[in-house]
Every structure is written in structure tokens, then in C-alpha cells.
């Protein structure tokens, strides 16, 4: 097998470059590395300077060339001892770009160039921030936030790195869990991926270096990985260690989602329990029992107490009388006074609603509530009696009032003025964690020694062992289906030694219950998830303006005509002024006036004409 190295557009074999000691290490959720040695003076310029991009390929017996590694120079150690001098070169794979790029997301913020006079000028714009909410995505076209699964977050992180110039192609992303929001500051792309995969403890990541133009990133859970099956009877590994790990099996997963919901400044705590199996209690030894704090609902509402009274049946004489007695304090019947509305005189300025507003204020936010200010007018007839029941006065009275009529009812109306919905509880998370943590894991190391790494007919598949599970036949029956997660592959090409390390994840989520719980405690509650979408604070507070009419009674009565007047003294002597008596005598007179008349005063000597004032009518004939 011929090994080729390409740098700066020049491709030569390792021997032509003068290189040796080629090794490669592939690791899940960490930087793959390659190293090789360039013998010679160690105090000269590097053959491949720091940051150089290197491509390594191998050429098989059929002259087919397959990409084997793509990376950048990250270290050039120099060494001299005795008569030997050399420079070693260490390359990092594409994960280096994820380790060295801070992940950012778009947030809405106030537009510093906002022009209130320009209708096309947006009030808010999207801008990148290193405060991120993992599990949430903003549509750059609509600005609307949507929830993301863990796999979608990982895909976004890789796409972000690619857009920044990382030499990566996006492949299969298999974890697809609903997860709690995770708000973080200033984390790298690699840390964002690891935080997502904490919820899938049986997942691994790997790069396929055989693709062009760049390596392809993949991520999958144990159940979705293809199998690398090696027959122990066909070859003999130079070393094999294998440890079953029932000590880290989890018999149950119980998650308790806590939320503090704030309604009008008052906090209410709620807890939702999710468990698997359904019979789990969380009190089983080695069970994963965790409390996850989620952002709760924040709501502000305004309320208005309304009291109304049904307007009397003003179509009837009795209803009209009652209406005016309620709305004019001078038009109230007593033991010696009777008040009635003259027939046909009751009028309204418009068609009223059925109820009168008595208490409260009708607000604009009250849905399906209508109001009208109505002016009522009528002519009242007031009859006054003396103690004996005799009429002593009859007069008319002009009545007028304004009231607020409405179709509202007596109750307290409530309107939500500000609402930030709480974080949705992830579905199926307990079951997914159980499926990751309950199956038996196998941990160990397999070392294969041959003339050249992984070139034997039975070992060709192992070149792509990253992203697979390991099964061994020819040993214990359980080994043939153990599906051990391959975490790391070390290849010493010159010495033909390949070391495959397998077992539970080490870099990602913990190997035991306490580590998982510590990982959860490091998750920040995403209280800003609404702010990212709107650019506004998610405090839930909202300004409330009072509006609309309040109860109104504007009574304006005016004196009318006096139809009867009886003047009486303590001796029960009366003067009865009753205009109705005129009509009883004659129809020729309609009015009595104070008049001056001449009379003959016979008491004088001699008699003479004198004058007096009297109430009389004009002369008339019978």
C-alpha cells in the first residue's frame, strides 16, 4: 500500500516527502489526530507550517486512491537527542474547527437605523449573539421561533460551522429527541453538540474521510449503527480485554419537570412527572431520577368588575313611572304626592341596550360588549294631596336624563394583556434515556497486529470501524450480539498495530448516574426564549390602559305647568285655584288675569268711583 500526502497542491508519497511513523487516532466527540515524523535538522523551517491543510490518501494494489485523512497542522514538536534530530507533525481533523468556533444564533434586537417616518423601516432586525438557546430555531425570513430536536440542533451547529468555512460535509444525524431548552453563553460548536448528545448517552460521532471534497460528519445512536463483526477463530488478536458493565445499567428513568408559572405577579409551581417503564417509582436503586427546571408561563391580565341593572319595561306605564323614579330624585312618589308619566311623552334619543351600567368601566378590550349613551325625556305629572287626601296641587314636570346602556352582564371581565407561554415539556425523553442506559454495555480493548494496518482480507471493514458497533464471534455467545460502542481507533501504520477501544461514552455523557445528574445541573433554564424571537423582555409585564364609559346619570328636570293650587291656613280656610273649573263654567274663557276694575264706593259721602285689582276674565256672552 502506498501512502500519499498532498500539501499546497503538491501530492507525493510519504517516502518522497521523507516522512515516517504515520499514526492516526479517531475519537468520538473529540479531535481525530494524525502524526508523522520528518527526520532531519530540527532547527530549520517547517516543511508544513502551522495551520497548513494536509490530505493523506492510500493507494491500493489496483492503484485506486482513497482519502484517508484531512486535517490541519496544529503542532510541530522538534526533538534532538544524541545523533538524531527530527520534527514531528501533528494534524487535527475537522472537529478542530468545531472546538475553535463559538456557536452563535440569531436574535431579534432593536434596529439602530429605524426610521419612524419610513413605513419600510423595520423596528427590529436579526443579529448574531453568542448567547444561545439550544433547542430553538429562528426562521430568518419570518422571525418566528420554532422548537428543535437534538438532531436538528446538531445539524444547525454543523451548518453554522460550514458557513464559517469549516471543511465539513453534513451526513446522517440520527438522534431526534425533544429536549428541554438549554440557554448557554459563549460555548463552542463542539460543546453545543456534546450538550445535545448528553440526552443520547449511547450516541457516537465520526467523520468519513473517504468523501470529497471534505470529510463527512455523522452522528448516530447505538441502535442505528451497523455492526463490525470479527471472528476470533479466523484471526487472533494480540490483545483482548472485555468487561461487561451491568454496574451502570439503569433500571428506571424518572424525570420531574418543574415550572414556576407567574400570573399577575404571583408564582405557582407545577411539576410534571415522566417515567419509563410506566411502573417506575424513582426509588429503585441505580434509577436515574432527575429534576429538570423548565421556564414557566408568565402572564399578566387586567380585570374589570361590571355591575348592570336591567332597564325597566318602559313600554308600559308602570315601567316608565319606575324608570323615572329611579333616575330623578325629585320625581319620587310619597304618601302625599303621586308621580306619573304622561302618556306618550316618554322618548329616547336612540334604541338602547337592555341593561344600564351601574358600576365599573366598560373597556375597549371587552369582547362582544357594546355600549350606547342614551338621552331619555318625558313629561311627568305631579299630584300633591293634603293630609285629608284632598288635591292641593297638580303640575307637569319636564324630565330628562342621560345613562349608559349596554349588553354587558354583571360579572368580572378579564383580559390577558401579556402572555409568554411556558416551555413545552419534551415528550418521550424518559423512554429514550431508558433505552440508552438500560441495555448492557461492554467495555474493553481489541488490538490487532499485522504487516500493515487493516489490510487483511477479513479486516478491510475495520478501516471504517468508526460509527459502528463491535461484535465478536468465536467466543462467548453474548459477545456475538453485544453491540459494543466503538469509541476510539488508534492506528500505527508503520508497525501494523490497530487498537479498537469500545464501551460507554467517556467524552460525552457520563458512565454512571452521578455524572449524568451533574450534566443536568449544568443546564441553564432558557428564560430568554421569547426574547430571542421578539427582541422584547420576557417578563410578562404589559401596559394596561383604562378606556371606555363609566356609569352616567345626568338628570335635568324643569318645572312645567301647575294644574291645581289650593292655599290653606291653619283654620282650614282655603283658596282653591283650579283651572279645570273654568272649562266647567264656559268655553269662552281660557285665561284669568289680574285686572283693574272701577267700583262705586257707597260708603263715601257723597258716593264716588274708586278702583281695585281682581282676578277676572275678559267679558264674554252666554
**What class, by secondary structure content?**
mainly beta
Shape: rod-shaped
- Quaternary state reads single chain
The number of helical elements comes to: 9
The biggest beta sheet is recorded as: 14 strands, mixed
Rg over CA atoms, rounded to whole Å, is: 49 Å
The total count of strands amounts to: 37
Q: In what range is the share of β-strand residues?
A: 35-45%
Percent of residues in helices comes to 10-25%
Mean pLDDT: 87
Contiguous runs where pLDDT drops below 50 for at least 5 residues: 507-513, 538-543
Describe it for me?
The chain has 622 residues and is mostly beta strands. Among the domains are: 2-93, Roll (Phage tail proteins - horseshoe like beta roll fold); 222-243 and 440-506; 304-407 and 548-558; 579-622, no CATH class. Helices cover 12% and strands 43% of the residues. It has 9 helices and 37 strands. Strands 1, 2, 3, 4, 5, 6, 7, 8, 18, 19, 30, 31, 32 and 33 form a 14-stranded mixed sheet that branches. Helix 3 (150-163) packs antiparallel against helix 4. The protein is rod-shaped. The relative contact order is 0.13. The model is unreliable at 507-513 and 538-543 (pLDDT under 50).
Tags for this model:
single chain; 622 residues; mainly beta; Phage tail proteins - horseshoe like beta roll fold; 14-stranded mixed sheet; twelve-stranded mixed sheet; 9 helices; 37 strands; rod-shaped
Quick structural gist:
By secondary structure, the protein is mainly beta. The chain is 12% helix and 43% strand.
Blueprint (SSEs and pairs):
Elements: E1 2-7, E2 10-13, H1 14-17, E3 20-27, E4 33-39, E5 53-59, E6 65-75, E7 78-81, E8 84-92, H2 95-99, E9 105-110, E10 124-129, E11 131-134, E12 136-138, E13 145-147, H3 150-163, E14 169-173, E15 182-185, H4 189-197, E16 203-208, E17 216-221, E18 226-231, E19 239-244, E20 253-263, E21 266-276, E22 288-294, E23 298-310, H5 317-327, E24 337-341, E25 347-348, E26 355-359, E27 371-385, E28 391-406, E29 411-420, H6 429-437, E30 442-449, E31 468-473, E32 484-492, E33 497-502, H7 513-521, H8 529-534, E34 558-568, E35 574-577, H9 580-585, E36 593-601, E37 608-616
Parallel strand pairs: 14-17, 18-31, 20-22, 20-23
Antiparallel strand pairs: 1-2, 1-5, 3-4, 3-32, 4-8, 5-6, 6-8, 7-8, 9-10, 11-15, 12-13, 16-17, 19-30, 20-21, 23-26, 23-29, 24-27, 25-27, 26-28, 27-28, 28-34, 30-33, 31-32, 32-33, 34-35, 36-37
Amino acid at each position: 500500500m502506498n501512502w500519499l500526502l498532498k500539501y499546497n497542491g503538491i501530492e507525493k508519497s510519504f517516502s518522497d516527502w521523507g516522512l515516517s511513523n504515520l499514526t492516526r487516532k479517531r475519537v468520538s466527540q473529540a479531535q481525530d489526530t494524525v502524526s508523522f515524523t520528518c527526520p532531519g535538522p530540527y532547527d530549520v523551517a517547517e516543511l508544513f507550517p502551522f495551520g497548513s491543510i494536509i490530505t493523506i490518501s492510500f493507494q491500493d494494489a489496483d492503484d485506486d486512491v482513497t482519502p484517508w485523512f484531512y486535517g490541519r497542522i496544529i503542532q510541530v514538536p522538534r526533538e534532538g537527542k544524541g545523533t538524531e534530530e527530527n520534527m514531528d507533525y501533528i494534524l487535527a481533523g475537522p472537529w478542530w474547527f468545531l472546538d475553535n468556533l463559538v456557536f452563535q444564533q440569531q436574535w431579534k434586537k432593536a434596529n439602530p437605523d429605524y426610521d419612524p417616518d419610513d413605513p419600510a423601516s423595520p423596528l427590529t432586525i436579526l443579529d448574531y449573539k453568542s448567547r444561545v438557546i439550544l433547542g430553538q430555531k429562528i426562521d430568518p425570513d419570518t422571525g418566528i421561533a420554532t422548537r428543535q430536536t437534538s438532531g436538528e440542533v446538531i445539524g444547525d451547529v454543523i451548518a453554522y460551522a460550514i458557513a464559517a468555512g469549516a471543511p465539513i460535509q453534513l451526513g446522517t444525524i440520527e438522534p431526534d429527541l425533544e429536549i428541554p431548552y438549554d440557554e448557554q453563553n459563549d460555548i463552542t460548536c463542539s460543546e453545543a453538540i456534546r450538550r445535545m448528545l448528553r440526552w443520547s448517552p449511547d450516541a457516537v460521532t465520526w467523520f468519513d474521510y473517504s468523501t470529497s471534497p471534505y470529510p463527512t460528519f455523522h452522528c448516530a445512536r447505538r441502535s442505528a449503527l451497523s455492526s463490525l463483526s470479527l471472528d476470533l477463530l479466523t484471526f487472533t488478536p494480540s490483545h483482548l480485554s472485555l468487561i461487561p458493565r451491568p454496574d451502570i445499567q439503569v433500571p428506571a428513568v424518572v424525570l420531574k419537570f418543574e415550572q414556576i408559572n407567574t400570573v399577575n405577579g404571583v408564582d405557582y409551581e407545577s411539576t410534571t412527572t415522566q417515567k419509563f417503564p410506566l411502573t417506575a417509582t424513582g426509588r429503585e436503586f441505580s434509577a436515574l431520577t432527575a429534576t429538570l427546571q423548565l421556564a414557566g408561563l408568565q402572564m399578566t391580565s387586567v380585570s374589570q368588575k361590571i355591575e348592570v341593572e336591567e332597564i325597566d319595561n318602559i313600554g308600559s306605564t308602570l315601567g316608565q313611572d319606575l324608570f323615572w323614579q329611579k333616575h330623578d330624585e325629585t320625581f319620587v312618589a310619597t304618601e302625599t304626592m303621586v308621580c306619573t308619566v304622561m302618556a306618550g311623552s316618554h322618548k329616547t334619543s336612540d334604541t338602547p341596550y337592555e341593561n344600564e351600567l351601574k358600576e365599573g368601566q366598560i373597556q375597549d378590550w371587552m369582547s362582544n360588549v357594546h355600549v350606547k349613551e342614551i338621552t331619555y325625556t318625558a313629561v311627568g305629572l305631579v299630584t300633591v294631596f293634603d293630609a285629608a287626601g284632598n288635591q292641593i296641587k297638580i303640575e307637569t314636570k319636564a324630565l330628562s336624563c342621560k345613562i349608559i346602556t349596554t349588553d354587558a352582564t354583571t360579572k368580572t371581565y378579564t383580559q390577558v394583556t401579556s402572555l409568554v407561554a411556558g416551555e413545552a415539556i419534551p415528550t418521550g425523553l424518559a423512554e429514550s434515556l431508558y433505552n440508552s442506559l438500560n441495555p448492557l454495555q461492554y467495555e474493553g480493548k481489541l488490538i490487532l497486529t499485522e504487516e500493515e494496518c487493516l489490510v487483511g482480507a477479513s479486516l478491510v471493514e475495520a478501516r471504517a470501524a468508526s460509527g459502528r458497533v463491535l461484535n465478536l464471534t468465536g467466543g462467548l455467545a453474548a459477545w456475538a450480539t453485544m453491540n459494543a460502542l466503538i469509541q476510539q481507533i488508534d492506528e500505527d501504520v508503520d508497525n501494523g498495530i490497530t487498537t479498537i477501544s469500545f464501551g460507554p461514552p467517556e467524552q460525552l455523557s457520563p458512565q454512571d448516574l452521578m455524572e449524568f445528574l451533574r450534566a443536568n445541573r449544568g443546564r441553564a433554564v432558557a428564560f430568554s426564549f421569547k426574547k430571542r424571537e421578539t427582541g422584547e423582555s420576557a417578563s410578562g409585564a404589559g401596559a394596561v390602559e383604562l378606556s371606555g364609559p363609566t356609569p352616567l346619570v345626568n338628570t335635568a328636570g324643569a318645572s312645567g305647568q301647575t294644574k291645581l293650587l289650593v292655599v290653606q291656613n291653619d283654620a282650614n280656610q282655603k283658596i282653591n285655584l283650579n283651572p279645570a273649573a273654568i272649562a266647567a263654567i264656559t268655553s269662552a274663557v281660557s285665561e284669568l288675569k289680574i285686572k283693574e276694575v272701577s267700583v262705586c264706593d257707597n260708603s263715601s259721602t257723597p258716593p264716588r268711583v274708586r278702583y281695585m285689582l281682581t282676578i277676572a276674565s275678559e267679558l264674554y256672552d252666554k
